[in-house]
Design a protein that fits this description.
- The complex is a heterotrimer of chains A (325), B (330) and C (377).
- Chain B is 41% helix and 12% strand.
- Chain B is an alpha/beta fold.
- The termini of chain B are far apart.
- In chain C, the strands form five sheets. A six-stranded mixed beta sheet of chain C has the order 9-18-17-16-12-15. Chain C has a four-stranded antiparallel beta sheet with strand order 1-8-6-3, with no helix packed on it. A four-stranded antiparallel beta sheet of chain C has the order 5-4-2-7.
- With 377 residues, chain C is α+β, with helices and mostly antiparallel strands.
- Chain C is 31% helix and 27% strand.
- In chain C, a hairpin with a 2-residue loop joins strand 4 and strand 5 (43-48).
- Classes of the chains: A alpha/beta (325), B alpha/beta (330), C alpha+beta (377).
- Chains in contact: A-B, A-C.
- The A-B interface holds A 22, 24, 50, 55-56, 58, 60-74, 76, 91-92, 95-96, 100-109, 140-141, 143, 163-165, 239 and B 70, 101-107, 111, 113-115, 120-123, 125, 128-140, 142-143, 149, 161-162, 165-166, 168-169, 172, 325-330.
């Protein structure tokens, strides 16, 4: 059955609300407006204002309240409208959600789920086009997920709500209208492992988020050129799944990491380091990265496109690494 | 707004209660003095913020709380922890970094936790715990639990955006939250006149439609009475309450503080309002206690603190192999 | 100023003739660059430079023969290189190339690992990876190519020079080294049967020749008896690596003795590959200087002819030479029975200053033991 990424997200939220009375959704404009991106449209009518809570523009306040509600026995799903606003809540995430279990010597769990829409590609300029997954993936104590596919948009929330620790799920606004096949019985997915989205033997394209479908499209075109690329969707950005990454390198001996976030100190940098540390002698070429160009996002379309890894860039880079041109 | 400034000095007739309040304040005082001593002997490290002078607030407010209520506090929280029934021994062990501490030694002085006693820190980012307190109160409301959440913070926190966000959210959601501002007149080393345009902090509640009250934080009986009034309101209405306790810390902000920002004469003037001798005097006047009773209490406190030191000293350190424990639950 | 002198490429090299300068004054050179072709008694040898800088002056002229150690050229080191006024600044900047970027072979970690496993020299491989890096595939192709028989190239000149070099070395040996000789006969039935079986699994190109068994058995026996893997230089000096010099006769006369480096560490396939690589290059006189100067012992095998026994002359400063004759069917008595067996005569020529007959005897026994366990070679 073909459904949009948006619908997959909505199904996940609806299912979570149906399954567990302790679950409630709170966020800016999630209720009466129907969600800034229409993800939660209709849920207020279905579940009422006690379960679908509109909140004031107080990111630190309501994210902190979500953490407190989790401490108090609830299973809050907190939507931060976009990652761009999340820095206002960063203190709550970093100093409270991520630390309480440890600071309390294991006494306090914080089973909160924070959803953030993020990403680029809609000409929203410098303050609304952030890829800040690496910022959060830096923090021990947080579990950081990236829903780069419809399957994960549908399945990650359920598993995240079962987790006793704080989970951040990154969702991608640019993909909301994208349709994909999803089985009618699609549901919970694991939140521990990376996923081989396409098997291949010549090179590993390691990516996540908005990079997944781009990498898969690129891999399809590369097949025509006789290159069999493997596509790894990291999915879980913290803690990173070393095993999947290293196994793939052992198989293909070449790695290209694709990421929309700025290159310096990003996930790709971490992946590269881990490959070097663990499987250096499996490498038949230096690990390469295609990341966001380090510039505040410009507004014009052509410049925005140029600042992000595109399908053609991936193809070109892979061919160069394999010397097929 | 409840006007309490003209309230008459409270009296009590219950000897046991009077003795208990006195004992609790004396214990906090002695505990803090001992902590300072142990800090100078390097038994305690990190930041150490002492509550000396402010004892009446923690002891007074706690009288109005039940065991099922939640308490969140700041990094100057030894007094609140003791008042909530966490023993001096496990608190001191925590400050020694020992496994037997209330946070297994992971937190130290600023991060005392006891889930069983519903004591949620020990939070050291100023005002960072206020939104959490709102959330905990929200959880109680959603689960129709008959408890309230009490959140202690200082005048410094009242300047943070999170204070204002939390007041708004608490009022908006009508959650059972007691916000207790311990106004000791200094945000670390900066006097309130340099940090708040409007220094009558209790007036800030009005902007959010939150019932508010100020009380003499150097008078434990007044604090207790105000807190009982506040919690009764909260339990009746389900709405938040804002209680400002005007108090003063006699010691420096933390151990390494030259106190350049205030005159010794100011400190001396406040010491004349010391809540502990004040209560002793009242209890003696009302003939609820004798000098011998007080002597007895001093001995009891001294023994208890000494036992706490022994307990902390005899504690063990967590093996380094367990370093990464408690980052995640599994 | 750096002095570039006629290199010494072996104990027996006394002089060299400069055939060609590959650089001219003003050229920049870096470590590893080939800057001259020198004809020695052993043939034309590419001469590399070990410094970095700019050629200041070519002192020796082409076709000039000079003794080892003679100043051939002056090189201004990069730091002191004088910028001529007419040269644009950019050019100077280009000259300053970090050593680390230019002196290492560009190969992937995996390629390096595989090359080490297969005994392939990365320096011989042209990379096809990004930026010319050598990849695993390149190494594997090179390894396969080593096993292919290489078309023999026409021998070049210098036959006379080689004759002279051999003459000088052998005269020196005969003059200075008190040789002793030991001889033994070895039954090759088992090794040859094993080889025939082993070759069934190999393609024609990969097939092993009996000589690789002999080379490997020598290498292993040397590990057992290290006094024969040594130089004599005012005393016995054992060598910690086993580089077996393999005498290759040239069609035009003379012999070349390239070294099979680390022969004890190589598999039979790798040894076969080394021989397949070296023999045609030796005959084309395209050996590297290191291959000509690193041997720690020499093997001479006259198996192609009909010679039964070889009494060799030691190549100084080595202390031993192993000689193999042809494998010839001979009557052979064993356990009271007479039969016809393929027999190899092995001789050892050894320097009596360095060792005695007992040492040599132990070596020959060890050699036969290893040879009779070919699956362990």
């Amino acid at each position: 059955m073909k459904i949009t990424y948006r619908e997959a997200l909505k199904q996940a939220i609806r299912e979570a609300l149906q399954n567990d009375e302790r679950v409630f959704l709170m966020g800016e404009d999630v209720g009466r407006y129907g969600g800034a991106f229409a993800v939660s449209k209709g849920l207020l009518q279905e579940f009422g204002p006690g379960r679908i809570m509109d909140v004031p523009l107080s990111e630190s306040g309501f994210v902190g309240a979500g953490i407190g509600a989790a401490l108090g026995g609830m299973r809050p799903v907190v939507e931060v409208m976009t990652v761009n606003f999340s820095l206002l809540a960063m203190d709550q995430l970093v100093n409270n959600a991520a630390t309480l279990l440890h600071m309390s010597g294991g006494q306090l769990n914080v089973p909160v789920v924070i959803r953030m829409s993020c990403g680029t590609g809609r000409q929203l300029a410098a303050q609304h086009s952030h890829s800040w997954e690496p910022l959060y993936a830096h923090i021990p104590g947080l579990i950081v997920l990236s829903a780069g596919t419809h399957e994960d948009a549908r399945g990650m929330l359920h598993t995240a709500l079962q987790c006793p620790d704080p989970v951040i799920i990154f969702e991608y606004t640019a993909m909301l209208n994208l349709e994909a096949d999803l089985p009618a019985d699609a549901g919970a997915v694991n939140i521990d492992r990376a996923c081989v989205r396409k098997e291949g033997k010549d090179i590993s394209i390691i990516t996540y988020g908005a990079g997944v479908y781009k990498a898969l499209d690129a891999a399809k075109e590369l097949t025509a050129a006789g290159i069999d690329a493997e596509v790894i969707d990291l999915r879980v950005l913290r803690p990173l799944d070393n095993i999947s990454i290293l196994d793939s390198v052992r198989k293909t001996h070449r790695v290209l990491v694709v990421e929309e976030a700025w290159g310096s100190v990003n996930i790709a940098a971490e992946v590269s380091a881990r490959i070097m540390e663990n499987v250096f002698y499996e490498l038949d070429a230096g690990v390469q990265r295609l990341c966001g160009i380090e510039v505040p996002m410009p507004y014009p379309k052509h410049l925005e496109d140029a600042s992000l890894p595109q399908i053609e860039d991936i193809i070109k880079k892979v061919k160069k690494m394999l010397q097929h041109d | 707004m409840e006007e309490t400034s003209g309230m008459q000095t409270t009296t009590i007739t219950d000897r046991e209660h009077g003795m208990d309040l006195l004992y609790q304040m004396m214990r906090i005082r002695r505990f803090e003095e001992k902590s300072a001593e142990l800090y100078t002997k390097a038994k305690i490290r990190g930041f150490l913020h002492l509550y000396v002078g402010e004892e009446a607030v923690a002891v007074g407010v706690t009288q109005a709380l039940r065991t099922m209520d939640n308490v969140l506090s700041t990094y100057r929280e030894h007094g609140h922890a003791l008042s909530r029934g966490i023993t001096a021994g496990v608190i001191l062990a925590e400050m020694f970094g020992k496994l037997q501490g209330c946070s297994r030694g992971r937190g130290g002085s600023m991060h005392l936790f006891d889930a069983g006693k519903r004591f949620y820190g020990g939070n050291a980012i100023v005002a960072g715990h206020l939104p959490m307190a709102v959330g905990m109160a929200l959880a109680s409301k959603k689960q129709k639990m008959d408890n309230i959440t009490c959140c202690f913070f200082g005048d410094g926190a009242a300047a943070e955006g999170e204070f204002h966000e939390s007041m708004n959210l608490a009022a908006l959601w009508e959650v059972p939250l007691l916000m207790v501002c311990e106004n000791n007149l200094y945000a670390m080393g900066t006097a309130i006149r340099y940090t708040h345009a409007m220094q009558d902090l209790e007036k800030k509640g009005a902007g959010y439609g939150i019932e508010s009250m100020k009380v003499n934080g150097m008078d434990v009986l007044a604090v207790e009475q105000a807190a009982r009034l506040a919690t009764a309101k909260i339990r009746t209405t389900g709405k938040p309450f804002f209680l400002v306790c005007n108090t003063y810390r006699f010691r420096a902000h933390s151990m390494f503080d030259a106190e350049l920002y205030r005159d010794k004469s100011e400190v001396e003037a406040w010491k004349k309002k010391d809540p502990i001798p004040a209560l002793m005097q009242q209890l003696l006047e009302w003939q609820l206690v004798t000098a011998a009773d007080i002597k007895q209490l001093e001995l009891k406190v001294e023994t208890e603190i000494q036992q706490a030191v022994d307990f902390a000293e005899s504690g063990t350190l967590e093996p380094v192999e367990e370093l990464t424990k408690f980052v995640y639950s599994k | 100023m750096i002095e570039f002198c006629m290199p010494s490429l072996g104990a027996d090299m006394e002089a060299g003739t400069l055939r060609e300068w590959l650089v001219k004054p003003g050229d920049t050179v870096k470590r590893g660059d080939i800057i001259a072709v020198v004809e020695t008694q052993k043939g034309l040898i590419d001469i590399e430079v070990f410094d970095e800088g700019t050629i200041d002056q070519l002192v020796v002229k082409e076709e000039e023969k000079v003794p080892v150690g003679t100043l051939m050229a002056l090189i201004a080191s990069t730091k002191e290189a004088v910028v001529k006024p007419e040269q644009p600044e950019v050019k100077t900047a280009e000259k300053i190339i970090p050593v680390s970027l230019t002196t290492t072979v560009k190969a992937s970690p995996l390629a390096r690992r595989v090359a080490a496993e297969k005994g392939v020299d990365l320096a011989d491989i042209k990379g096809t990876g990004e930026g010319g890096a050598i990849t695993k595939e390149d190494v594997e192709k090179a390894a396969a190519a080593q096993k292919e028989p290489v078309k023999e190239e026409q021998p070049t000149m210098a036959a006379e020079g080689i004759r002279m070099a051999v003459a000088a070395a052998m005269s020196k040996s005969n003059r200075e080294i008190p040789h002793y000789y030991l001889e033994t006969k070895v039954d090759m039935t088992l090794p040859l049967a094993w080889l025939s079986e082993a070759n069934k699994k190999r393609t024609v190109k990969q097939r092993l020749l009996p000589v690789v068994l002999l080379v490997k058995a020598v290498a292993k026996a040397l590990a057992d008896v290290p006094d024969l893997n040594a130089y004599w230089d005012n005393g016995l000096q054992r060598k910690d690596v086993i580089n077996i010099g393999f005498a290759i006769s040239l069609r035009t006369g003379g012999v070349m003795i390239p070294a099979i480096h680390l022969a004890d560490k190589k598999t039979l396939d790798e040894l076969m590959a080394s021989l397949n690589d070296m023999i045609p290059r030796a005959r084309a006189m395209k050996l590297r200087s290191s291959e000509l100067s690193d041997s720690t012992i020499t093997i001479t095998s006259l198996g192609e002819g009909n010679v039964e026994t070889v009494y060799g002359v030691i190549y100084p400063p080595q202390v031993a030479l192993v000689g193999f004759g042809s494998i010839i069917e001979q009557p052979w008595a064993e356990q009271g029975m007479l039969g016809v067996r393929p027999i190899l005569t092995v001789t050892l020529a050894a320097d009596h200053r360095a060792t005695d007959g007992a040492t040599g005897s132990r070596f020959l026994v060890a050699f036969n033991e290893h040879l009779q366990k070919p699956d362990m070679l």
